Amino acid sequence: MSTNLFKYEYLADSNVLVGVILSDNIEKDDSKAILDYAIEELKNQPDSPNYIMDVRRVTKVSSYAIGVLMKALGVMKKTKGYMILVMTEALLQEIMLQHPEMFDYYAVFHTIEDAVAFIRK
After folding, report:
1. For residue 111, what is the DSSP state?
2. Mean pLDDT of all residues belonging to the chain
3. Residues 56, 88: Cα–Cα separation, whole Å
């Protein structure tokens, strides 16, 4: 998969692995490609007990893509500690209206710094 949709970043000082979605509009095909790449590439990432999914660039996401996002986070949860999403307030409000159940499982922050501070607590 091209790295124009997703990448990993490792925050060595915090021992946190961050998965970053790079596209602003996630549709069905994109979400499947991101999931496949994230699972495969996870093997090549540093061993870290914590994982953050950064979706701050995303402004529009299909319902199908939300399902794939939850599945991706579920896969990561099997190998990582805290499951945290970082997203904009606008996207948070949109998803909360359409899929409130999603927030029963994941902590949500608006910045990586706030998410890392939560992990450190």
Report:
1. S
2. 83
3. 5
